[in-house]
């Protein structure tokens, strides 16, 4: 196991070669005289030097203890010109603005640039259910393996692999959901 190249060590720990190079640069990897990585010694050193940055934690704690700034006043949505607050001209300007906005939305829906709210809600609920089921599956399938692991590095590798699979499934399903939403919009016209 000793005398590994950076690529082999990266594959062993489930990280990129760039990450391994950063470990070497920071002295967290033990190198052999030939410049190869001593696997067991490097894993031990990584485990020893793994820890949080206290300066960052202190900075965040200080920010949390300070009171939040008061919220700014909301800006008006539209500019209706120089009319007084209760005038008929303002009401007509608002009516025209919202009618124009509605027409723009309808035109965008016909061109396929906007999607019906019901279709978005339906697909979002489906994707949410799929994500929840995937997370529950990760928990159910990894719990026994995580309990049997000897160190945190092995646990991290198992979780990274399962989360990468879940990320792949969701990334694959998002374009499909978008196609389904667009096809529902076109068929409803």
Task: List the SSEs and their pairings.
Elements: E1 2-4, H1 6-13, H2 17-25, E2 37-38, H3 39-49, H4 54-65, H5 88-111, H6 117-148, H7 152-187
Antiparallel strand pairs: 1-2
Query: How widely separated are the two ends?
Result: 64 Å
**Count of individual domains:** 3
Estimate percent helicity: 55-70%
Low-confidence stretches: none
Shape type: elongated
Largest sheet: 2 strands, antiparallel
Strand order of the largest sheet: 1-2
What count of helical segments does DSSP give?
7
What is the gyration radius calculated from CA atoms?
A: 28 Å
Strand share of the residues? under 5%
The H/E string reads EHHEHHHHH
- Content-based structural category: mainly alpha
Strands, total number: 2
Overall pLDDT level: 83
Provide an overview of this structure:
Helix content is 70%, strand content 3%. It folds into three domains: 2-48, no CATH class; 84-114; 115-187. By secondary structure, it is mostly helical. Strands 1-2 form a two-stranded antiparallel ribbon.
Give me a quick take on this structure.
The protein has 189 residues and is mainly alpha-helical. The chain has helices at 6-13, 17-25, 39-49, 54-65, 88-111, 117-148, 152-187, and strands at residues 2-4, 37-38. The chain folds into three domains: 2-48, no CATH class; 84-114; 115-187.
């Amino acid at each position: 196991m000793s005398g590994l190249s950076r690529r082999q060590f990266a594959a062993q720990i489930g990280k990129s070669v760039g990450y391994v190079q950063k470990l070497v640069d920071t002295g967290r990897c033990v190198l052999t005289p030939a410049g190869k990585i001593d696997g067991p010694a490097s894993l031990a050193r990584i485990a020893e030097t793994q820890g949080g940055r206290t300066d960052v934690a202190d900075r965040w704690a200080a920010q949390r203890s300070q009171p939040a700034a008061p919220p700014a006043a909301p800006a008006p949505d539209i500019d209706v010109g120089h009319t007084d607050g209760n005038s008929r001209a303002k009401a007509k300007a608002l009516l025209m603005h919202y009618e124009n906005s509605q027409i723009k939305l309808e035109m965008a829906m016909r061109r396929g640039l906007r999607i019906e709210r019901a279709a978005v809600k339906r697909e979002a609920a489906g994707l949410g259910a799929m994500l929840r089921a995937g997370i529950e599956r990760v928990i159910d399938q990894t719990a026994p393996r995580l309990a049997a692991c000897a160190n945190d590095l092995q646990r991290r590798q198992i979780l990274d692999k399962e989360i990468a699979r879940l990320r792949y499934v969701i990334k694959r399903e998002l374009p499909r959901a978008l196609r389904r939403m667009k096809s529902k919009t076109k068929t409803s016209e």
